[in-house]
Amino acid sequence: MLELAPGVYSAPRISPAVRQRVWSVLKDWFPNEYEASITMIWQDRETPGGQAVRTLGTPAVQIVSIDGLLLTRRDA
């Protein structure tokens, strides 16, 4: 996986099983981090924009689809 920025990972051709395992490990490690965030992005032709996104972290964000674009929304 390519780390695009600290805590931002992208893998266009990773298998679902490997992606699940990586996410599982990250979720297990994550509670030990302070004010951190993790974003995983991968190709998914079933989702708007052709990419799926998972996030953990601070501040918490919600991924929303608006007119076929994936955007992040945070509570005010």
The value of Rg in angstroms is 13 Å
Mean pLDDT: 82
Share in helix: 10-25%
Portion in strands: 35-45%
So how many helices? 1
Major β-sheet annotation: 4 strands, mixed
Number of strands: 6
Query: Which outline best applies?
Result: flat
Order of helices and strands: EEHEEEE
Q: How far apart are the first and last residues' alpha carbons, in Å?
A: 32 Å
Sequence of strands across the biggest β-sheet: 1-2-3-4
Q: Decide which structural class fits the backbone.
A: alpha+beta
Low-confidence stretches: none
Structure, explained:
The protein is of the alpha+beta class. The chain contains 1 helix and 6 strands. β3 (37-43) and β4 (51-57) form a beta hairpin. The longest helix is centred in the N-terminal third of the chain and has 14 residues, at 16-29. 3% of the residues are buried. The mean pLDDT is 82.
